[in-house]
Amino acid sequence: MSTGLDFKTDWNHAAGDYAKHRAGFPDWFFDRMEAARLFRPGMRVLDLATGTGTLARGFAKRGGIVTGLDIAPQMMAQAKALDAQAGVSVEYVQAKAEATGMPDGNFDLISAGTCWFWFDGDLAAAEAARVLKPGGHLMIAMLAWLPLKNSVVAASERLIEKHNPSWTLGNYEAGGVRYLRDLANGGFDSREMFAVDYDIPYSHEAWLGRIRASAGVSASLGAEAVAAFDAEHAAMLKRDFPDDPMQVPHRVVATWGRKP
């Protein structure tokens, strides 16, 4: 049985930095979704744990009829503001991935971006199968920083661990093995996966905001602790990573399966 991470977070506290500084899935990701025939304009899409709506908005820009679902209302408020700037409309609902409250057989595609490890995978997969149409797909994606040796990612992770010893997500490298298992256990067939490593440029200011928006900082520390972390992080960047912007290593992974 797959279970979510045992780490207490409140993403409402990270919503502002998350919306402003966290890079979303790139345009070419959505091109690959269309090429793989997971998505086409007019499809009904449910985006689980939508956060600030990076996947939901991407599908809506391409003609999807999209519902974004999350437990954090402040994250969805930021998503709505970003949608307005982009000129798209997404319906947002406060609910859990394991109990969406959506009707049976209502969606062509269910997406989950950089969130599946927070779920009970078995329950979330069963719920996805319930609300998908026959032939619809569950697509589990990750866009995660890559903690390569001597990278700014690795240095920032060590600083998070110093300020928040309960944070245990360091040295994580995104991969699709667990997702393939959850798809298989959930009865999804035609399972596939791709992964791409690439760099995302971040200014010092943006990387400070990106790290504040992480689970180990604003989502789980108090305001004073966040400020202390942020000050030390800024000094570390200035001292050890003077290039501005920096090229920050990331990985995109997408795994999907079809409901028979």
UniProtKB/TrEMBL annotation:
Q: Where are the transmembrane segments?
A: none
Give start and end of each Methyltransferase type domain.
Answer: 46-140
Alphabetized, the UniProt keywords read:
Methyltransferase, Transferase
**Thylakoid recorded as keyword:** no
Q: One short Pfam family name for this protein?
A: Methyltransf_11
Superkingdom of this protein's organism: Bacteria
Q: Enumerate the Gene Ontology biological process terms.
A: methylation
Q: Name one GO molecular function term.
A: methyltransferase activity
Question: InterPro entries from the entry?
Answer: Diverse_substrate_MTase, Methyltransf_11, SAM-dependent_MTases_sf
Family indicated by similarity: Belongs to the methyltransferase superfamily.
* Listed name of the protein: Methyltransferase domain-containing protein
- Give the originating organism: Dongia sedimenti
The taxonomy runs: Bacteria, Pseudomonadati, Pseudomonadota, Alphaproteobacteria, Rhodospirillales
